[in-house]
Records
---
Amino acid sequence: MSFNKIAVIGLGKVGRLAATLLHEGGFEVTGVDAQLPVGGVPFQTRTGDIADPAFVRELLGSVEAVLSCLPYHLNIGLARAAHAAGIHYFDLTEDVPTTNFIIDLSKTARGLMAPQCGLAPGFVGIVGASLADGFDRCRSIRMRVGALPQNPTGLLGYAFNWSPEGVVNEYLNDCEVIEGGIRKLVSPMEWLETIYVEGVKLEAFTTSGGLGTMCDTLLGKVENLDYKTMRYPGHMDLMNFFFHELLMRDKRKLAGEILTDAKPPVDDDVVYVHVAAEGTGNGRLHRKEFVRAYYPIEISGERRTAIAWTTSASVVAVIEMVRDGLLPSTGFLHQEHIPLDMFLSTPTGSLFKQGSARRA
């Protein structure tokens, strides 16, 4: 079911860039926010209150798809409205309960329900499943992602270029893994390891949500599966102190406010991706790796941060594939079912081919 009219709700850095990429890709885009971005944008815009059911019904009745770039806690209401309108639904959430709700909705959906279309979950799941494909027996898939300042300062070595709500949840919610063929929940900010990308020393530790639905899909097919966040060394111990010894885990909203105030966003960021799969093929044990460092690039005459363009490009590439009939048009979309080669061949997905290109 081809479509062309799409609403993008939430016009922060990610939403505005996603709407721009969709517009340039031939979509008829309506960008929606309570307060419109400063400066001109090439697509149509509207203001409105997403908490107003009448406004949402009217908006979704005039489009064929909706992309939510809203905080995760607003996605359930929007997904329910998209389901009622019979249109395609896309979002960037890493929140597991939100995704589980959307999975249930998808059983009776007239359109496609596609949450978790960002960087992680999203792109890294596509990469991980692709690396594992072709093994006779897959021993492990290990996925690590870090969105970091290029020039870190202070003990944390961090900047909140992503939603503080999302980061706090990732650090505090239980993490799904497959270990020894058994699906488990493990604590966040554990299983510490050292990783090098482009000679940069990083630490990686468990965080919630990055696997998306991969545990459901790959249970019984892969022996070990996990996702970790990468940070500069020393970060995990300090965050454990902040959340657990100071009991900020019981004050999540305040924790996010404190951290964002202490470590505001930066323009010179970098996204590190390290995905590896191990298994046997033709009787031989083999390891495949996808390792990249993504830097800010110029898109549509404007410099875009690494986290903004990698997140936006991930979801837009998926939307392009759905429009072109390359992916299902109804039901639930598992990111790990998307072929990596097909993803990279889309106009927007091709941006990921420039991995390790230096800063614009």
---
Amino acid sequence: MLAVQLLEWGSAPELRDIPVPEPTGEQLLLEVTAAGLCRSDLSVCDAPAGRFDYPLPLTLGHEVAGRVVGAGPDADGSTVGSSVVVHGVWSCRTCRNCRRGRENYCLALRLVDGRLAVIGNGLGAPGGLAEYMVVPHGGVLVDTGSLAPELAAPLADAGATVHHAVSGQADLLDSNAVVVIVGVGGLGHLAVRMASLLGAGHVVAVDPRDAARRSATTMGATAVYSSLADAASATRDLGGVDVVFDFVGSDDTMAEGLATLVPGGRLVVVGGAGGSVSVAKNRGIAAGWQVSAPFWGSRADLVEVVALAESGALLPEVTTRPLDEAIDAYARLRAGEDAGRTVLLPTTSDEPTPERDAGKDHRQ
């Protein structure tokens, strides 16, 4: 089968022909129907040797929709034939956080000798940028019903992560709330929509790219700006900002976001640009500040966003491309050339593919 694999740390991934995996034990075999690209993939590829406790070669892809087509001898085969999306955090299922339904904070995800531990498909285990993949058991699957695969795949990470981050601040998201979304990319555009769905009265989006700002408007932003400084100036007339959702996570965005907060305000950092910010009481920050850095989402978060997508309330904007164009698609992702989420389909460039911007088509 065709697969997109990282062969060496600090290098670009490559297209390779590898054997179709065989499910063993409780494993299930999926025929991949769509797989989303994420900037986290670039972070893995760019990493020096020793940062991740991942074996190479590694098939990338942690946003995966597929159809169950096979089962190991100890697996529950009742899902064979089902259309599903894969929850990309393959937790231990036994630690106290897993028992609480907080699989995204599984205690087994701790550092291993200073290296980042295996998380799941595409992040340590073979991923879904391939024609087939195996999952460890049926517990990581969520049924997607009739939802189109290219819309289901981004929900595995972008959707679940946004739901976890935004719904975690639901107590502040009333009709008076002033919310700022920094970075309207694959996750940020969904955050705009999620904040609106949860009732935030003022949803302000910030992104220097014209296409991203248009996306934010489509998803329900009440105002859009090209810089956080402009947004901060505008929100002063609204009394300041209750919650900043930072999908960039640079030194500048974190510092500027923190400075906009009202008393009791919150800075929620989702982006992984490597920034940091210094916080302390009585250091010029609004009283009662909170700073958090949520990670991914639980399986329950994924179930919720799939339901929202099936109802038409939360549909990602996607651009589809064939699997064999993965290397170019990653280059465009690195350059920030596409709004929304790029999703690869298990076709080749000489085969027909669905129309571009499938998310927009489904909203019409």
---
Amino acid sequence: MTDDVRGLCAPRFAAVRAAFAASLARHDVGASVAVRLDGEPVVDLWGGHTDPERSVHWERDTLTAVNSTTKNMTALCALVLADRGLLDLAAPVAAYWPEFAAAGKEGVLVRHVLSHSAGLPSLPGTVSAEDLYDWDRVTALLAALAPAWEPGTAAGYHALTFGFLIGEVVRRVTGRTLGAFFAEEVAGPLGADFHIGLPARHDHRVAPLVPPPARTDEYAATAPQGPDGVPRAEAGGPVVRVRDVNSVPWRRAQIPAVNGFGNARSAALLHSVLANGGTAGGVRLLSARGCEPAWRELVRGQDRVLGTPMCWTAGFGKFGDTFGWGGWGGSLVVSDPGSRLTVAYVMNGMIDRDRQEDDRGTDLVTAAFGALY
């Protein structure tokens, strides 16, 4: 395969370009990678194709579904509101959403939701992706639900509920959907080409997700275990397939944990704000102090859903000195406030991690950090 990597790469970060070219040659259908240092772009590369037949080139402005990498952007919305004094991360969720106090949840704090420790990882009463499109019904289900464990005492990944919980708080505070608030107050000022609830005018730029080799578009997100070791689909929650994520209703919906559309450039731009004292590209979105919850540990221990040791901050996974999160299929964004470095990777070709290790994103992160030393 010829090297079809396009875009810019500062000489210092040549190893990132090499790792990206190798990934395109081995695994990727189409993808993009971006690195920002001190809030400024040093790598902005893309290549490959938008379709499994490899007939349409991935372009500079190609978008694709980033799945749970969206959680980074949803958390950023909460931190912006907190920085403006409109949201108290230590306040009960019910202070903003009174109905939420039902079933013993009066002590659930905003920070518990952000750190996946609210005890609400499942969505009983939902079966398919279509059930996620009814915002009022889903949030009413969550408001009536009892926590699966004492909030704040342990974490359990809130794969889908994270976005509805934070999104409803944002809606109660601002009167806007999370997608609208994000577009107007976060992505808009920064000029970030990232969308939660994708307008139809962008459909022509979307590269559909491509299921892993030997899989069809019925390929579904692996259901992590519930708090009692039961797969989440059995404990109560929808099964989401590739064909759901590639559908028009999914694009239009508000599912702020998982249905963001963007590319590496936009993900890195947004996340770099938190690694760069609240600014990126000359635009201030947060105060320096307002960034700190992104990397300040809130809960640590065995995650009751993921089944692995985790450290969670106010909206992000913490890994050593870095923080961020990734999405089903392989996308990710990671920042280090110490070095003021952010790395993002977005792709459409998925790898089945139950069958094969997916080191594409981590190889790029390693190459980027290696350039600093």
